[in-house]
Design brief:
Elements lengths: L12 H11 L5 H8 L7 H11 L6 H6 L15 H14 L3 H11 L14 H13 L5 H10 L1 H6 L19 H8 L28 H10 L3 E2 L27 E2 L9 E2 L10 E2 L5 H13 L4 H13 L6 H12 L9 H9 L6 H21 L1 H4 L4 H14 L2 H10 L4 H19 L1
C-alpha cells in the first residue's frame, strides 16, 4: 500500500499574478515566471514564501541618515529629512527584493500606528528606525515586537509614554493612560472579548463583553512610568529624568528607565482563564513590571484572532470569513512547535489558505476525487453491504487513513519506518471496516 497524493498541476499565470498581488506590492512578469518555475500548485507558493523569508530587510535609516548634512548648518530643519524617508519607502516597496517582508511591515505599520503628523515630525531618523523595526520583526515573534514598540522613543512621543511619571497626589500628577489604552485597544486585544474566529463573545443578554475596565487601564499606566529619552552623546549634563531630551543619536535608541520615576506599587492587569500575571506585586523592578505586563497582555486569548484578522485584511481580503480567521488564529496560538505569536507562521497561513488560488482548489478537489474512487475500487467487497450514508462516512475515514499526511505523521512524529507505518495503516483500515460492518 502507498499513500494517496494530490496530482501535480502547473500554476497558471493568472494564479501567479493573483498570489503575487497579495504577497507583494504588485506582480511583475519576471516574478510570476520565477514563481511558476518553483514547482506545481502545491509546492511553488510555499517555496516562494520560504525564499522571501530568508531575504534580509530593505531598510530606511541609513538612506535617511546619509541625507543629513554633516555638520548640519545652524537652524537646520530636520523635518526636511521626511522627504528622503518617504522616497526610500517607495524605493523599497517598488524595487526591494524582500517584497513579502515589505508588505508585512506595511500591514504592521497600520496596526502599530505612529505618524509624522504629530510631535514625531521632529524625528525623521526615529520614524525611519521605527519602520525598520517592523520590517525586522515581520516574521519574528509578536511578543518581542510589542516590547520593542513599547520602548521605541517614537512611540513614546506619539502616545505620550515618554516622560510618564509616577503618581504624586500633592502635585496632582497621575500616570498618563494614553499608551496603556492603545496597547490594548489597537495593538493586542481590542475592546470586546472574541471567539477564536474573531466574532464577539456574548454574555447571557447577547451583549459583547468588555476586555478591560478603567482599573486595568490605570494598572498598565502605572507600569509604563519612569521611561524617557536615553542619555547619550548630545544629551544635557547632568542627564536625568527632568533634563533629558530628544537628540539625533537617541531618537533611534530604546527609552531609558529612570527608576526614581517608576511607580513600584501593586498593579491590577487583565484577568482571563489561566491568566498570566493578573496582579503585579509591589516592589518589583521596573523592567520586571514591564515584562510581566507584556506577558499578561500577550497571553490573552484575544490576541490571536484580533491580530490575525487585521493581517488578513491588509494582506489578502478585507472581509475574511470567521473560519479563515479561526484557522489563522490557531497558528498564532501555536505554530506547530508550541510557539505562540510566530508572525512568520501567521503570514504563511494568511497566504496559503485554500482556496486562495482557483488552480490549487482544483488540484485539491481532483486529488480528493481520485483518492475516493481508488478506495471505493480497492475496498468494493467490504463497502458493498453498507448503506449509502454509512459507506460515504467509511470512505471519508479511509481517505484520511490512507493520506500522505497520515503516513508523514506516523513516520516523522511517531518514528515508524515504512513497513511499520504500512502495518499501522492497514490495521486501522481493517478495524474501521469491521466497525462499519
Amino acid at each position: 500500500m502507498t499513500p494517496t497524493s494530490t496530482p501535480n498541476l502547473r500554476i497558471s499565470k493568472a494564479d501567479a499574478f493573483r498570489f503575487l498581488n497579495q504577497a507583494t506590492f504588485g506582480a511583475t512578469e519576471d516574478e510570476a515566471e520565477r514563481l511558476m518555475a518553483l514547482g506545481d500548485a502545491v509546492t511553488a507558493y510555499e517555496r516562494w514564501i520560504d525564499g522571501q523569508m530568508e531575504l534580509p530587510p530593505s531598510t530606511q535609516l541609513e538612506y535617511v541618515r546619509a541625507a543629513r548634512p554633516i555638520p548640519p548648518p545652524p537652524g537646520f530643519d530636520y523635518s526636511r529629512l521626511h522627504f528622503q524617508r518617504r522616497d526610500i519607502w517607495f524605493q523599497n516597496s517598488v524595487r526591494g527584493s524582500d517584497q513579502l517582508r515589505q508588505r508585512v511591515a506595511w500591514a504592521l505599520s497600520q496596526i502599530l500606528v505612529t505618524s509624522q503628523i504629530s510631535l514625531a515630525n521632529r524625528y525623521p531618523l526615529g520614524l525611519a528606525d521605527y519602520y525598520d523595526m517592523l520590517a525586522r520583526h515581520a516574521f519574528g515573534n509578536y511578543r518581542e515586537l510589542i516590547e520593542e514598540v513599547t520602548l521605541h522613543p517614537v512611540m513614546g512621543v506619539y502616545l505620550s509614554m515618554l516622560g510618564n511619571r509616577k503618581p504624586n497626589p500633592e502635585l496632582n500628577i497621575r500616570p498618563d493612560e494614553n499608551y496603556a489604552r492603545e496597547l490594548m485597544q489597537l495593538f493586542t486585544i481590542g475592546l470586546v472579548e472574541l471567539n477564536a474566529d474573531g466574532t464577539p463573545t456574548l454574555d447571557a443578554n447577547d451583549q459583547p463583553i468588555p476586555t478591560y475596565d478603567q482599573a486595568v487601564v490605570e494598572g498598565f499606566a502605572h507600569v509604563f512610568t519612569g521611561w524617557h529619552w536615553a542619555c547619550t552623546f548630545g544629551s544635557p549634563r547632568p542627564c536625568n529624568f527632568n533634563t533629558t531630551r530628544g537628540t539625533v543619536p537617541n531618537q533611534i535608541l530604546p527609552m531609558q528607565l529612570f527608576p526614581e520615576e517608576h511607580d513600584t506599587g501593586e498593579k491590577r492587569l487583565l484577568t482571563y482563564p489561566n491568566a498570566v500575571n493578573s496582579v503585579i506585586p509591589a516592589g518589583q523592578a521596573a523592567e520586571q513590571d514591564l515584562a510581566d505586563a507584556l506577558d499578561n497582555i500577550f497571553h490573552h486569548p484575544n490576541v490571536g484572532p484580533f491580530i490575525s484578522r487585521q493581517l488578513i485584511q491588509r494582506l489578502v481580503t478585507s472581509n475574511p470569513s470567521p473560519a479563515y480567521v479561526a484557522r489563522t488564529s490557531a497558528v498564532f496560538d501555536d505554530d506547530g512547535t508550541g510557539r505562540r505569536g510566530n508572525l512568520g507562521a501567521v503570514v504563511r497561513a494568511t497566504q496559503l489558505q485554500a482556496p486562495f488560488s482557483p488552480t490549487l482548489a482544483q488540484v485539491v478537489r481532483e486529488g480528493a476525487a481520485r483518492s475516493r474512487t481508488e478506495l471505493e475500487r480497492v475496498f468494493a467487497p467490504e463497502l458493498a453491504p453498507l448503506a449509502p450514508a454509512c459507506r460515504a462516512r467509511v470512505v471519508a475515514a479511509l481517505d484520511v487513513l490512507a493520506s500522505a499526511n497520515t503516513w508523514e505523521l506516523l513516520r516523522d512524529l511517531h518514528g515508524l519506518d515504512e513497513s511499520e507505518a504500512e502495518r499501522s495503516v492497514v490495521e486501522s483500515i481493517v478495524a474501521r471496516l469491521r466497525a462499519a460492518a
